[in-house]
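General statements about sequence and structure are easier to judge against a single worked case. No coordinates are needed to read the tokens, only the vocabulary itself. The sequence in question and its structure tokens are set out directly beneath this paragraph.
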Amino acid sequence: MKISKITYPVPAIHCHHCVHTIEMEIGDIKGVESVKADVNAKTVEIDYSEPATEELIIGTLREIQYPPEVK
């Protein structure tokens, strides 16, 4: 099982409540191994494997009002 790691800039992170919300919602996605949101760096780092996908993770961040800056 291949584990992928992604890090996104998420400018909408402003407080520890934001961190908690992101970590809980993304952590609930099947296949997400770990998630760490950083209020100071305004980033989210995620380790995941199937069935989680980058598209699903990005979509979930957008749904919970923390859209990542993606290329």
User: Anything to note?
Assistant: The chain has a mean pLDDT of 96. Strands lie at 4-9, 32-38, 43-48. The radius of gyration is 11 Å.
